[in-house]
Amino acid sequence: MYKEYRTKHILNVHKHSDGGWFWTKYSASPYLGCEYGCTYCYCREDKYDPHKSERDPEILGLEDPFSQYIKIKENAPELFRKAILNKPKDLIYLDSYQPIENKYGYCRKILGICRDLEIPIFINEKSPLLLKDLDILKEIKKRSYVNVGWSLISSEKDETFSIFEPNSPNPESRFEAMKLLSDNGILSGTVFMPILPYIYDSDKNIEHVIKNTVLNGGKYILDGGLTLNGYCKSFFYNYLDKYDSSLIEKYERLFSSNLLYSQINIKIHKTVLKYCDKYNIQNYITRPINHFPENIQINKKVAENLFLKARDIQLEGGDKYKEWAYRKAAWEIDEFRDNILDLYKKEGCKGLTRIKGVGSAISLEIEKILRFNIDKG
Ligand code: SF4
């Protein structure tokens, strides 16, 4: 079921950059709801769910409103242009190449606006439908930055896959699209999330996804675990039950023990690292910084370093206090308006500690990063 509507809102401006992951500061989507209906999708959770029965009574009676009721922002392109026009240039997260795009073409229009305004983009995608806009992607690449992360949980479509991603294009077609992008010089990689515990966390699946990424020209693997909250959990369990009912008890245990949850995710992450190492592919996205004003590019570089440290600690189940110390310092430096190198040259590490969130230990790490960059010229 589709419904067009007019809205005043299309651009999300996040408080901080999504440091260590996609590096995005903005996000936008011309459609609400997603026809692909992945059964693990966190967007059904109350705080993200775009459909509310008070506003859209049509959803009452639908089995899965999130995937069966798609709202189209009929003024999306004009609204997007207006909203982004005077914003500081930063990376935007896009997705939404779902079948309805064939009729409206709003993703294409939004891409065209990003090209004209030289806005760098990251696209998280499951559908080769994106390739219809290869011409614009190539132009964006010339003018700013484009990176397409292919969302994958498995390297092949089989019965298991059809349970967890019932309507989305098959993984093979995503790898083919990755190859085509790569052949056209467009940065691409795999967003390997969520790796479903006890289902897709085998060495075999992890190795296949990573190997296929490399074979198809992907440049990174970004892995992440499954989160299940509120309604998402009961929704997902219906499908888990179809797959293997004995797993419900295991999942219950997993999601009621922070320790077990963390142990399983660390184990999965280590397996990913093992195969990234074997196939010589990086486990993060290098932050694009050329679109920032030149005098703060060094700040962004330092922040990148600290964000990645925070992410490593998070994925390896390290000290939470340390993880947050790095992240908070990274946020402050990322948003610092003066050139951090000038500050360091004038006042040394002591000067760095005047930045909120930067203590003496972190100032020494920043010093190392700055020195490395000075030596590199
Ligand atoms: S494609 Fe993405 S947004 Fe759509 S249902 Fe799947 S996980 Fe959710």
UniProtKB/TrEMBL annotation:
One of its GO terms (molecular function) is metal ion binding. Pfam families: Radical_SAM (PF04055). SUPFAM superfamilies: DNA polymerase beta, N-terminal domain-like. The keyword Ribonucleoprotein does not apply. Residues 30-203 form the Radical SAM core domain. Keywords: Iron, Iron-sulfur, Metal-binding. The keyword Metal-binding applies. PANTHER family: ELP3_MIAA_NIFB-LIKE RADICAL SAM CORE DOMAIN-CONTAINING PROTEIN (PTHR43432:SF5), SLR0285 PROTEIN (PTHR43432). This is Radical SAM core domain-containing protein.
